[in-house]
Amino acid sequence: MKVLLRLFLFLTLLKTGAPLKCETCESHGTNCTSTMKTCPPHISTCAVALIENALEGEKMVSVRKGCEFLEMCPTEMIQFSVGNETTYRANVICCIGASCEIVYPYLQLPPIQPKTNGMKCPACYTKTGTCGHEMVACTGLQKFCFEVSSVSYAGGEEVERIMKGCTTESVCASLRNGHPLLVSHDLVKSARCTPDVFSHSETTKLLIPSFSGLLLLAIFF
Known about the structure:
Blueprint lengths: L1 H15 L4 E3 L1 E4 L7 E3 L6 E9 L6 E9 L9 E4 L5 E9 L20 E7 L1 E3 L8 E5 L4 E11 L2 E11 L1 H9 L9 E8 L9 E3 L15
Antiparallel strand pairs: 1-3, 2-5, 4-5, 4-7, 6-7, 6-12, 8-10, 9-12, 11-12, 11-13, 13-14
């Protein structure tokens, strides 16, 4: 369904030729409203994301709307686990114009799948730059191990973040093609997935200077 939606969005933009405008906002809860903003020329779609973030312990639900790359429209729900029942999930729907107003019946997060799938991954979520030796049993569609090392700057100080755990194919594919669904404001030092979702080799590894998705997804919001 989302593959067809991406094709529809592309054809719609070709037909109109008009600058893309998207409602841009973020808020705790399940909805936010704002004025329409004109997107940069290289941006091809609007996106609405419902996010459930339990990385800091307390589970928080928020919504984000804005301009986005078409490549950032995932074919499945974004989700990953980094141990100690610490999870992150997001349902993202891409849309244009009036179609963005009718996405809410589809913008839902299904129940968490507790059944393990046999995959186990090293697990870590830290801001100190040092990980332990915890392992996490993957569940549902999270059949890949991932690792992301990034740096952010707050108050003039450098904060190094490391995330390791289980995730889905769509997240690993986004790491591979350079439009990650994991971080948006950090400077990413390295990112990898195991196994490789493209060549079926042992590891997908990506070393790039920075990622800059507007919506998808500021984990540390």
